[in-house]
Design goal:
Blueprint lengths: L1 E6 L5 E6 L5 E8 L13 H8 L9 H9 L4 E6 L4 E8 L3 H13 L5 H19 L2 H13 L13 H4 L4 H11 L5 E7 L3 H11 L20 E5 L5 E8 L8 H12 L5 H9 L6 E7 L4 E9 L4 H18 L2 H18 L3 H15 L5 H9 L3 H12 L4 E7 L7 H9 L1
Helix pairs in contact: 1-7, 3-8, 9-12, 9-15, 10-11, 11-15, 12-14
């Protein structure tokens, strides 16, 4: 498999990977515009705009957009993250031109019909309400806000209902003008695709697109705070976060190996100690996420009101213990989990297309899998222990609690326990 990359004169980047033997392809546009590119008064507009892209263009109605893809058995969708918005489709090889034509149309030519805005506004308000009613969803938004208060990267992607209620056509048009230039876009496709043919299509479809003057995202500054919401729920939800490496940090893979060993599966330390040995929860896990200029390791668990204090304290104790006695067996297992997870996850063209788009956005190129595997293999026990010790000595933590959590220890108390 080989990756091919071309940058058009207008700045649009086209990256493809032909996967022999496949009869289908995934093709999409990734835009360097997400939640952290919004100003305070725009919070939620990137996500709302993603919805509006499917509500009609200058040449297609909302129904026609869906029908053109589904008439050929394809699938089309989108998502908004803190740093990107993606519009993508999965179709058979012969229908790649159709799919790219539809995606280019919804990205370049949305009409923002006021009637459709009102319809979708109700949909998004329902989505916000559903998230607020799902404790193990909303607690991660609260943790993000606690880690980065009063910053764009700390705000929710959905935005507050009060702002969603106020967005109008001019707001959407302004955000598109500011962020949706071809120089802010990546066309990524994998599977049964031909790079040169896609470049020619892109040259035609984006011929009239003008470069944007997108503002640089607000830099992230980890501050770390506590958010505690007491509510009569069946479970007490606990999420603690620690600042972790950004994408360009040399410790990125070390942090990921450490996090996997700590709480990445049923054999991990947190799962074995807190669930299997002590029975304090049904689910507990750790995960590491990275952004352009920051990152966060998150530990989450749900437990009972009576056990929340013990769970929180034991979690901190496991962090301290890992810094002293993490073993080569654990590190080796974590490396194997990471490599297998990465390779198995890339067996679909959709995963390949997303990986390429993200790497182009972050690094400007797509590293081959052998290079990434070698970086994972280079993480040894010494590096993991050094990272674990630095984390234990750091005060860069944040805490979110939701449910019957009055008896849970405070963030200051947990920080003191970590340093003791």
């Amino acid at each position: 498999m080989s990756v091919e990359f071309t940058t058009l004169p207008n700045g649009l980047r086209v990256v493809t990977e032909h996967m022999p033997g496949l009869l289908s392809a995934s093709v999409g546009i990734w835009v360097n515009a997400g939640g952290r590119h919004e100003r305070l008064e725009q919070n939620g507009i990137a996500h709302f705009l993603e919805h509006m892209a499917f509500k009609g263009t200058k040449t297609r109605s909302a129904l026609q957009i869906a029908e053109e893809i589904e008439d050929v058995g394809g699938y089309i969708n989108a998502y908004t993250s803190r740093e990107m918005t993606a519009y993508y489709a999965r179709v058979l090889a012969a229908d790649v031109p159709l799919a790219l034509g539809v995606i280019a149309d919804i990205v370049l030519n949305p009409v923002f019909d006021p009637r459709e805005i009102e319809v979708e506004r109700h949909v998004i308000l329902s989505e916000i309400g559903q998230t607020l009613d799902t404790p193990d969803d909303i607690i991660f938004d609260w943790l993000q806000e606690a880690a980065y208060p009063d910053q764009s990267i700390g705000r929710t992607i959905l935005g507050p209902a009060s702002r969603v209620k106020s967005f109008n056509r001019d707001d959407f048009a302004g955000f598109v003008s500011e962020h949706y230039g071809p120089d802010q876009m990546i066309l990524s496709a994998a599977g049964a695709v031909d790079h040169d043919a896609l470049v020619r299509m892109a040259e035609t479809l984006f011929a009239d697109a003008k470069r944007s003057s997108a503002a640089v995202a607000q830099p992230a500054t980890w501050k770390g705070a506590e958010r505690r919401e007491v509510k009569a729920l069946e479970q007490a939800h606990f999420a603690i976060g620690f600042e972790a490496p950004a994408f360009h940090d040399p410790d990125l893979y070390t942090a990921q190996v450490y996090t996997t060993a700590l709480g990445g599966g049923m054999s991990s330390r947190l799962f074995q100690k807190i669930r299997e040995e002590r029975g304090l929860c049904y689910s507990i896990f750790a995960q590491a996420g990275a952004h352009e200029d920051t990152g966060m390791m998150t530990i989450y668990a749900g437990t009972s009101e009576d056990e929340i204090a013990s769970l929180a304290e034991l979690t901190i104790d496991e962090l301290k213990r890992a810094a002293d006695d993490m073993t080569e067996v654990e590190v080796s297992r974590a490396r194997a989990q990471m490599k297998a997870g990465m390779l198995m996850g890339l067996e679909s063209p959709s995963s390949r297309a997303e990986r390429m788009a993200r790497n182009i956005a972050i690094y400007g190129s797509v590293p081959d899998l052998e290079t990434v595997t070698a970086k994972i293999e280079a993480v040894d026990l010494g590096r993991v222990r050094d990272y674990a010790k630095a984390l234990v000595g750091s005060q860069n933590s944040a805490l979110a609690l939701y449910g019957p959590v009055r008896s849970a220890p405070s963030l200051d108390t947990l920080r003191e326990r970590l340093l003791a």
